[in-house]
Design brief:
Radius of gyration: 49 Å
Pfam family, one: HATPase_c
Structural class: alpha+beta
Number of strands: 12
Largest sheet: 5 strands, mixed
InterPro entries: HATPase_C_sf, HATPase_dom, His_kinase_dom, HisK_dim/P_dom, HisK_dim/P_sf, Sensor_HK_Regulatory, Sig_transdc_His_kin-like_C
Catalytic activity: ATP + protein L-histidine = ADP + protein N-phospho-L-histidine
Shape: rod-shaped
Mean pLDDT: 78
GO molecular function, one term: phosphorelay sensor kinase activity
Order of helices and strands: HHEEEHEEHHHEHEEHEEHHEEH
Enzyme class: transferase
Strand content: 15-25%
Number of domains: 3
Length: 466
């Protein structure tokens, strides 16, 4: 309850109302004390006028007048003459004098609060202006105990009234907040839960109907997000179905093309010069088609195994990649150079790292081969305290603008003419599985350079140590 929006609003409302009532209570008590003094001055003036009307009053009547006025003595100044009109014995010396002719608000508040906390019974003098121009000045002496009792009684009534007002106000605000804010918010939450159960069902998309502007804007934003998400899920489902179909077609097509490769072996033995001249081009075309099918099947596998990390010698993996690519180079003027520190080991999955480097080196070799000129593909490596870095560079023509724009995106980021971009997409995904990054470091007319960064930091070990 206390952690709910309405509960906290109720608590804060009660606190703020009490603060407001306290700000009212303090000047109210000061005002009550001022009225108390003015009332005593007025009573004392009336009692003194009785004496002025008849000088021969009995002591008993004088005491009764003072008792009714609630004072010990009355001094009235008329025509510049100060006269002790009524008097009675004072139990103690006068403690303090208060001038009520023109007091400041701060002084009234201060004196009232001091009187509330002062429990001692004291005698004080109060000076004021007579009412109805009944003289120049009037002074009275009185006991502070009845004043403090009256202040406490008045303060208790004010506090009780403040508490009742606070409770009623907080309750009304609590009900209003629940009706206007909390209930619509709960409705939005229920819509979100219902939508989460079946996000593909468009009927579960929220319909904005809140009366509060801010809540309605939130509902509109939620409806827009749900609409886009539902469309994205539908598109994802269609793409998944399409991908499944493409994988099946690629699988069958690969088998057909593999059989076609066997037939081309016989074509190469033909004695017809034209056939023998076209046979290598046919073999290359079929080989590229087989590679595309295999890449499509590899990319379509959602159950790509997680890398099995172990300490491997980097030079062994690179040697295997270079050996395979040298067979593909044939008579082309393309050189492969390796610059790897002797004995450099890193923590990785050897098979997956071979696939990453194989894709990068193959792309580099094909880029140079497409120019019809010679070139160089280099593999280098380095390390520091936190990361292993492997670079694959070539002296080819650089990546086209479209490839740079959609780099590492399947079927869009092909680096060579007619390429699908699957090689880079798969390589980037395998590197991410190692917790690393595959980045394009440089590309231009002088060549292209890709960098693989593999972290040395083991998150599992670090979490256990922490």
């Amino acid at each position: 309850m206390i952690n709910s929006l309405s509960g906290r609003f109720l608590m804060l409302t009660t606190i703020f109302v009490l603060i407001a009532e306290l700000l009212i209570f303090v000047p109210s008590v000061a005002r009550f004390r001022e009225d108390y003094f003015l009332d005593r001055l007025e009573r004392a003036q009336i009692a003194s006028l009785t004496l002025l009307a008849d000088d021969m009053i009995t002591p008993e009547l004088e005491q009764e007048l003072l008792w009714n006025a609630g004072v010990f003595n009355v001094v009235l100044r008329r025509d510049e003459v100060r006269q002790l009109v009524l008097s009675s014995p004072i139990p103690s010396p006068i403690h303090k004098t208060f001038d009520m002719r023109d007091p400041s608000a701060w002084r009234l508040i201060r004196d009232a609060l001091l009187r509330l906390v002062d429990r001692e019974q004291r005698v004080i003098r109060v000076i004021g202006n007579p009412v109805q121009d009944g003289g120049l000045l009037i002074e009275i002496t009185l006991d502070t105990q009845p004043l403090r009792t009256a202040l406490i009684d008045y303060g208790i009534r004010i506090l009780l009234l403040s508490a009742v007002i606070s409770v009623i106000t907080a309750l009304l605000l609590f009900l209003a907040v629940r009706r206007v804010i909390v209930k619509p918010i709960k409705g939005v939450v229920e819509h979100m839960r219902a939508y989460a159960q079946a996000p593909e069902d468009a009927r579960r998309i929220i319909t904005p109907n809140a009366g509060v502007t801010e809540l309605r804007e939130a509902e509109q934003a939620l409806a827009s997000m749900q609409t886009q998400l539902t469309s994205a899920l539908r598109q994802k489902e269609r793409l998944a179905q399409l991908g499944s179909g493409v994988s099946k077609i690629s699988h069958d097509l690969r088998n057909i093309l593999t059989s076609a490769v066997l037939f081309t072996d016989r074509i190469e033995t033909s004695k017809d010069p034209a056939v023998r001249r076209l046979a290598p081009k046919l073999v290359n075309s079929i080989t590229r088609a087989v590679n595309l099918c295999e890449s499509t099947l590899a990319f379509g596998r959602v159950d790509e195994p997680a890398p099995v990390l172990s300490r491997i010698l980097l030079s062994d993996v690179v040697d295997d990649v270079v050996a395979g690519e040298r067979l593909s180079i044939g008579d082309e003027d393309i050189s492969l150079t390796v610059d790897i520190p002797t004995g450099m080991t890193l923590r990785a999955d050897g098979e997956q790292l071979y696939r990453v480097l194989g894709n990068l080196v193959r792309n580099a070799r094909q880029a140079i081969s497409a120019t019809g000129k010679g070139g160089e593909v280099s593999i280098s490596a380095s390390e520091d305290d936190s990361v292993w870095t492997i670079a694959v560079a070539d002296t080819g023509p650089g990546l086209p603008a479209k490839a740079r724009e959609h780099l590492f995106e399947a079927f869009q980021g092909g680096t060579t003419r007619g390429g699908s971009g699957l090689g880079l997409a798969i390589a980037a995904e395998l590197v991410r599985g190692h917790g690393g990054r595959l980045e394009l470091d440089h590309t231009g007319e002088d060549g292209t350079r890709f960098c693989i960064s593999l972290p040395k930091h083991d998150l599992t070990l670090s979490s256990q140590n922490s």
